[in-house]
Write a structure and sequence with these properties.
Length: 267
């Protein structure tokens, strides 16, 4: 295991937001964090990075106490891709991605300029953004901006990447492109934790699924073990049938109008 989170707890306004959450992630795997709105998914990502001062959690990365590391060292190790928000900042795509180099730059960034440019060029190429380098970030579509956020995280050259709903608002082809990038990062040995709402995409692509509900881990395992009718009914309150993808055998959730699905689920 490369990332171990032990007993993460956070209480806000006397309400438990995270209640004794412990997870362990292996590198080289695509790990999904699922759960209904308000389950605590984004909060857990922030707690892992030490961005929630009121939280209590022991977080180890590759055997070291992650929160005890200097801030700059943490920024070299871990990248967060938050839910995409529109920007009006007058910054071009190249410079937005270059921000990912900050934790690696010394007092004199000229010393590392050639290397930084090479890393940024590689991040732009990997996310299919090479042709966008000189475009103002604010003129890109939502999906294109999402890829810029991922490119910035790649430019950071982290060993741990936390992504908050990276496929949100993306069309089908863009979702596949993002998932291919994430698969490639996992295959390269990085540790990834990705919050997901699209459970069909989760079932099709991820190796390991952790489900949060009301701030607690309620299920964990392979997608086919977690994403099943009882779980969907209990945690999401939705009746659904689970089919098997004819190409891969992975679960596919059919969840049409509930009046058609009130009977026993087909497995
Ligand atoms: N500063 C805060 N004060 C009080 N409650 C908060 C605060 N920040 C978050 N919360 C609450 O914590 C809970 C978990 O929020 P979080 O954003 O982690 O959920 P999530 O699982 O990521 O949800 P979503 O899928 O809707 O993005 C929510 O009920 C939210 O209202």
């Amino acid at each position: 295991m490369s990332l171990c989170v032990q007993q993460a707890r956070l209480v806000l306004d006397r309400r438990p937001i995270l209640d004794d959450v412990s997870i362990a992630l292996r590198p080289g795997r695509l790990n999904a964090l699922i759960g209904p709105n308000g389950a605590g998914k984004s909060t857990l990502l922030r707690v892992i990075l030490g961005l929630e001062p009121a939280a209590h959690a022991h977080v180890e990365f590759e055997g070291s106490d992650f929160h005890a590391l200097p801030r700059r060292e943490r920024a070299r190790i871990a990248a967060l891709v938050e839910q995409s928000s529109a920007t009006e900042q007058p910054i071009d795509v190249h410079d937005a991605v270059m921000l990912g180099r900050l934790p690696h730059q010394g007092l004199w960034s000229a010393d590392t300029q050639a290397e930084d440019e090479a890393v940024v060029a590689a991040a732009l190429a990997r996310t299919g953004l090479a042709a966008f380098a000189t475009r103002r970030l604010a003129t890109l579509s939502g999906g294109e901006q999402q890829r810029v956020h991922i490119a910035r995280a790649l430019a950071q050259q982290p060993r741990l990447i936390l992504l908050d709903e990276p496929t949100n608002h993306l069309d089908l082809a863009a979702q596949m492109a993002v998932m291919e990038i994430l698969r490639g990062l996992a295959d390269a040995g990085l540790t990834l934790l990705v919050t997901m709402h699209d459970l069909n995409l989760t079932a099709a692509w991820f190796d390991h699924v952790i489900a949060l509900h009301r701030g607690r881990v309620v299920a964990e395992g392979a997608p086919e073990a977690v994403i099943e009718p009882g779980f969907l009914a209990e945690v999401y309150g939705v009746a659904a049938s689970i089919l098997a993808d004819p190409a891969t055998g992975r679960p596919v959730i059919a969840y049409g109008p509930q009046k058609f699905l009130a009977g026993p689920a087909i497995i």
